[in-house]
Amino acid sequence: MNLQIWNCGSIEPKSITLVEHDSARWLSRDELLQVKWLPADLPIIEKWFQEGLPESSRLR
After folding, report:
1. Which domain holds residue 47?
2. What is the pTM of this model?
3. Other C-beta atoms within 10 Å of 50: how many?
4. Which of the 8 DSSP states describes residue 58?
């Protein structure tokens, strides 16, 4: 499994085409820890919650 992280601007939800998933949704900071994440995803989600999202230049 490969979790890809993208820091992007806001887009219209109707413009998202799902291929591998049944649904998609935008989460606020407060909603991040309310999702049942896979164990491998938790460290990065917790880091985002504590430190905020990285700037796009730091993602490379």
Report:
1. 24-51
2. 0.50
3. 7
4. G
